[in-house]
Write a structure and sequence with these properties.
The structure is a homotetramer of 406-residue chains.
Chain A: E1 6-11, H1 16-29, E2 56-62, H2 68-79, H3 84-89, H4 91-98, E3 101-103, H5 111-116, H6 127-144, E4 149-154, H7 171-179, H8 188-198, E5 203-205, H9 215-224, E6 227-229, H10 237-250, E7 254-264, H11 267-272, H12 275-293, E8 298-305, E9 312-322, E10 328-338, H13 339-359, E11 364-365, H14 384-399
Parallel strand pairs in A: 1-2, 1-4, 2-3, 4-5, 5-6, 6-11, 7-8
Antiparallel strand pairs in A: 7-9, 9-10
Helix pairs in contact in A: 1-2, 1-13, 6-8, 8-9, 10-12
Chain lengths: 406, 406, 406, 406
């Protein structure tokens, strides 16, 4: 097990996923060692010298002004995970982490997100000034905690899609646009990602916000030797979809329609209830079927806000398919899972694997992490099992001292 | 495409699966070319010289005395497949096939099946005499139709489990038991399988009846150069299970319980309502989870007879699993499919692939057909995608003129 | 049983509900006597002298130019009801009815409906001219068939909501608006309803289109001695809702959220996929909960077009409720029914009961028909069982020669 | 509000329902006033002078030797109701109540229940001695707490059915059988019920055990002026069934099959996994459909033990029905509720209403409580809404000072 000190910078640090990530690491530190849901705790990853969960240091930023303690209480109450006794036990740890949560930026985040924000440090400045301020946050956190590495994870609310233009495809052109403070080319997520890569911090986009890992930022990551990956953590309905869709191929059954309805009641659901934010989400969920099946059945993904559900996302998918002699049959599923508790272990996995990749000298996209994402960048493989095989192969090679990783 | 004349001998020829197999082949012959549900009609199998669907000749046996025409009408009415006009069009073909449906044996089939049978040719004789009579049926059908090959498929109702003893593990000992007419060592399915292998006919056990491919019969198949495979066609709930269960591994989520409820109303459902017959079925469904997960969650499979459903099998599976920090979540699915229409294309696939294997000189078990079975013999791989990969690999090698097939 | 000759004028005569109404009556006439789904065929209605199903004469109008025979074939193929043999048997009857299907009007129907229409008789004329033409259609049909009575039923596609103004609340003012050809005050449904009431024809609005039974038209119905009723036939999800919601009252369980998702693939679904048309539908579905529960939980009804489902409407409702000590629990249901086959028997019931009401000298709204409608006019009772009790009470009184009906 | 001191004697006092009853009353006493799920807290019952929840005194008996505190902790952890802080707050109250929990009897309870019992006070004695001992428990509790009334509620695990003989139909004959210590004529539940009625304590059988309110005991209740009622609290699947089944009548839709599957993991589920105990439960669930529909569709109720679910009972019901022109359609529902939290408010309601009935001088069965039971004694009405109307009518009359209650 590595002895290096690794920091995790959570963008959206007061949200329920980030809070659960912190709770999970603290719970491990306090001795529960309950790591169900984490792949990096299974046998295949034992030999990779991954950073231990109890050595992670957390900081981050948020637009809201809440208390981490309240966010933690909310998670515990809504999900039944852990206990209020445990919350008392870790109260000081939470206070300490809270001191490392800074203000973030709401640049071009859309109305839904802006309404959530209390204030923002960067209202007045140029993009370059914002980038500099954020880089400063990273550096100061690393110094304060004597960190060997800092991994940045985007867990913020989903932004409206960023219209991708030519300027996003070329690092030089993009830098020039920043220099002339062209406000149309960035969203908040772009600024965090750019800053992370500039500072050499591995970066994970766990959200569908397409503004984060634009081609220019990926190009910079390749040049700077920084591993990055996204988009959109695959936690629920899409996870099931990517496991089930190949079944229809294995039987030459033709999917006629695949209609999915998601209801949830947390902040994520609230923001996604806004059509422009929802658009990002639905886009990253939508391509899975076509990529797996090789054709595009009638398919729509719907997301609706049902406050009483809070973090318990519920999804109903109705799959209509054609079988032998043209007969129609169906498969339905109902998924009921706590969004944050499904996401948090993936975030912890990704942090550890991103740190490993950096240490191994990898740069740019990390296609072996495809199984973690709804819309994995640089990967055409959308079948869950095959994606998982890619991860195991990577672990095998990395564990065997093999420098050339597939 | 092969020009050879291939026969298909259907044990349980008046049942709905057999009837649908025949309807499918006739529909193809009449020009519909609707082959959704058949893997052997997809690209990967084009180069293998598989027998064309319109060159298959059907015969078989049954315990009931019904008309094939009525069975066909029943399938059409209950599933909405094809049309009554089509039935009129093929009426003479059905009459012709019906003339090749012989009486079968009910030897040790259990009470539920015996009650269905009208009469049986072999009431009085010894096992050896029964075997001889059945071999005679095979031979005479082959001659009458000038067949190059005859594939035997067991589609009969599920028998009670045959208690496997030492005598079943050794061909010599088993032959000796037959010689002394030891009635305890066989069920009807054993007799058909033994006769098929003796006659050199590739044999497929599409049912869970464990009496069919006992080790001694497999041993004989290996010696005689006869390919055989079973058990229990994977058409519905277990298909979904073998596609979904690996997902929990890919996320290190712990399955706590997987409770499955199947309701159906066809003859199969009626026979499976008898506890002793159900036992066979449930056994072959039950091992899937343990084999895939590597541990055994609380899991039971229930099958109940609901007459109004007829052929439309409906299954509800409730999967309870543990996620991060010990929280419990769930996935449910409801599968609604026409049993016969799910099974028939698999049977047609298996007939074609068994004939290919015989032609290629393979003998004994055909592990590359694992994806077709709930309890594939000689195979430890129960994950659907990996099983399918085995089939594609086989097709690739067989298509490439490679004689050594994995 | 009454010997009077009763006509049924179907607005939307080529749609699947109208076609199924006709198929049902013809099937009865040909001897099947299969009346499952019709309340007026149960014991409580035997003494009321309701018109026999085999004495109904059908005519109507449509915007499309299709053949009734094709519509019938479509219904038979998609639902599995009846048989193609039966279709042949009634081919001439269908041809005869088709000759009585006239062109309709698309006045202010919205883009979605207009696109479906091939041509319209009334493109040029004033509203008054349209009314006169439609009255002419009614009269000429009555004469041609020597009818004692003609019941008009609106089965047309859902229109966008008509903004209700002061002018709609007063018959005089409304008539004046028609006189000055004020095009903003009517939709097609208004014109049919107005014409029906003017001609003394009982009128049923089986659709959610609020333009049909505006207050002024109801006022005219009261004056003219014409019974009318609406809105929106209660066939599926809302039916279940009105049966289930009272359960939560009977247990003092608090409904937190009731989120309903409807998917369907027929013409109705296609039109409802247009937001402006959907608005009408969702409105009439939406009030059920508040009326029953006495408070308004979080609740939305969603309707989406999934072509492969055709007439088989599928609905998933997720009901989240609070129980003792504040714990959250849930009830989900999935409804799978053929829309037309659920609606048609209700239409036949309504025609018979409207004819009875006219004969009994009733005029204006028929609140005893509340159980048939999603948004019953003039009724505050939304609980299914209580609504049904109202119908039985009416039947009891009408059967007992009691002239004063509750 | 009545100032009388009322005791509640819980048979099965350490079970989860009893524990939740106690938790609910204590939570009310401590000020939460959360009474969702209780009908007697709604407006219609305000004027009846029902005993206030915070004046109830709890005692009872159990076969197990556990701590009430642990049972309470279990309920809180598994259901998410209340909090561990609350548990600390009421710890002394629980200790006090625990001192009033006595040993019970396991007489003829069947193997499944006997295995749960640690010891029993009455191993040696005759039935008459057991009755006397239990009467003594009641009397001593009443004296110790200065109670005006004691209501006895059977919440014990379901016993195997008691074969009802002639002797059970006549009080004299039954008393004689007790005198000669005929062990075949009683189960534990009989002894409690007989003792309660002898002591003049209103008695509620919340379980399906048919041994409790045998005709002879009801006869004695009528003579002694003691109100009694049962059987089997209607909390989940059957509740939904009794709300939904009338819908099919209101539409003249024919139920073909209604197949219900219940899975649960608490003690109740564990005991019901034993076929002989399950038989009692299934019997009381089974008659609902026939009573409501007037005919008996294919219908079976299944109950299975799935430990991981603990108290969260989950039920899937598949309802297959025939609509117009013979087409088959379906309705499915999935019910997910905490068994104890559904049952406890009913128990509190029943205690208050039984005390009221006693005070009002009623004796024998209380048919107005039908809506609370799966198999209400002396009642032919099984439709939920109508049963509820019976309760409201009773409340109206009792509230209006009307002595003659329907």
């Amino acid at each position: 097990m590595s002895n290096r000190r690794i920091g995790v910078w959570l963008v959206g640090a007061l949200g329920s996923i980030a809070t659960t990530v912190i709770l999970g690491a603290l719970s491990f530190r306090k001795g529960t060692k309950e790591t169900t849901g984490m792949i990096t705790e299974t046998g295949s990853f034992k030999e990779l010298g991954l950073v231990s969960l109890d050595r992670l240091e957390f900081g981050g930023c948020d637009l809201r002004k809440g208390r981490l303690r309240d966010a933690a209480r909310h998670v515990v109450r809504e999900t039944g995970a852990l206990s209020s006794e445990f919350l008392e036990e870790i109260d000081e740890d939470l206070m300490a982490i809270e001191r490392d949560i800074q203000m973030g930026t709401v640049r071009n985040c859309g109305e839904a997100i802006r309404k959530l924000s209390v204030s923002t440090l960067f209202d007045e400045g140029s993009i370059r000034q914002e980038v500099a301020a954020i880089c400063g946050q990273f550096r100061s956190f690393k110094e304060r905690k004597s960190l060997d590495e800092l991994v940045v994870v985007n867990l913020a609310s989903t932004e409206p899609p960023l219209p991708i233009q030519e300027v996003h495809h070329d690092l030089g052109a993009f830098e020039a646009a920043l220099d002339r403070n062209d406000l149309d080319v960035v969203r908040a997520s772009t600024i965090y990602a750019y800053a992370a890569v500039q500072e050499g911090c591995p970066y994970i986009n766990f959200t569908p916000s397409n503004g984060a890992l634009i081609p220019a930022v990926v190009e910079m990551a390749e040049r700077n030797g920084v591993p990055v990956m996204g988009n959109d953590g695959k936690t629920g309905e899409t996870l099931v979809k990517s496991a089930l869709a190949p079944m229809f191929l294995c039987r030459n059954l033709q999917v006629l329609s695949w209609e999915g309805f998601n209801i949830l009641g947390n902040m994520d659901g609230c923001v996604l209830d806004h059509p422009e934010n929802r658009e990002s989400k639905i886009k990253s969920k939508d391509q899975v079927l076509s990529k797996i099946l090789g054709y595009t059945p009638h398919s729509r993904v719907h997301i609706h806000y049902v406050p009483s559900l809070d973090d318990q996302k519920t999804a109903w998918d109705y799959i209509h398919f054609k079988g032998f002699l043209g007969t129609k049959m169906s498969l339905q599923f109902v998924w009921q899972g706590y969004d944050s508790l499904l996401a948090a272990p993936l975030v912890l996995d990704l942090v550890r694997l991103a740190e490993l990749a950096k240490r191994r000298g990898e740069s740019g996209l990390m296609p072996h992490l495809a199984s973690y994402f709804k819309a994995p960048m640089g990967v055409e493989e959308y079948r869950l099992n095959e994606q998982f095989e890619m991860l195991l192969n990577y672990a095998r090679k990395a564990g065997g001292g093999d420098d050339r990783v597939a």
